[in-house]
Amino acid sequence: MNDDVIPGVSTAWLISNLWSLLVAVLVLGAGWFIARIVSRYATVLLSRSVQQDQTIVPIVGQSIHYAIMAVTIIVVLGQFGVQTASILAVLGAAGLAVALALQGTLSNIAAGIMLVFLRPFNTGDYIDADGIVGTVVEVGLFSSQLRTRDGVYIFAPNSKLSNAKILNYTREPSRMVEMTFNVPRSTDLDAVRSKVSPALETQFSLPDTRPEILVETLGDTSVTMTARVPVRSRDWWQARSVLQEKLKVSLDAMNG
Hints:
The chain is built from eight helices and eight strands; from the N terminus they run αααααββββαββαββα. By secondary structure, the chain is of the alpha+beta class. It folds into three domains: 5-101, Helix Hairpins, CATH 1.10.287.1260; 121-168, SH3 type barrels (Roll); 174-255, Alpha-Beta Plaits, CATH 3.30.70.100. A hairpin with a 5-residue loop joins strand 3 (143-147) and strand 4. Helix 2 (18-49) runs antiparallel to helix 3. The longest helix has 32 residues, at 18-49. The chain is rod-shaped, with a radius of gyration of 31 Å. 15% of the residues are buried.
């Protein structure tokens, strides 16, 4: 076939398939628009219905978006006479090839789904996952986003979080603040408890709980004691600072 025939064939093909091309472009644009709107609406609706747990919201919204786009692409291909059975066969073969080539990406998707169902942490929890430390901002389909206490953004693959040992510091409603201090061996320990305990009552304390002041070790000249105060988990950092200051003031008053 010489060069002057190729433009004729291309023009003829374009003319005969002009309507299909136009419909395909419109369907693709409409599908992208609908996917964006529906996923956003589903995200907002789900956020309102599960106000106490925002962990599943991003992954559901992303799944809806990708599902609608997949259906849109199949419809577009149908405009050019491609049979559904052929599409599924091609997608199956392509899916196998992609699965082999993108094992890491697929493992992130599987890990994201497992994180949502197993719930080792939720949005807003402060975690330590083998060195990945921060407050969970979002659990996505491929990765999770965290923010450290000093405002640093962390983008972590779901597979790494799923395989890590996770310490969740805010999952339980209460967490213990422990403070160790020394008093002379001759000191009346009951007197120490009676004077220090009231100072450990703060706005962070939980209802119906009391601080414990225990003997840790006995030395030749001093006694090491540990004050254990249950506080709200999400206020632990601030509570620890306030309690340490109040304990110092109380001990200074005793020594004075």
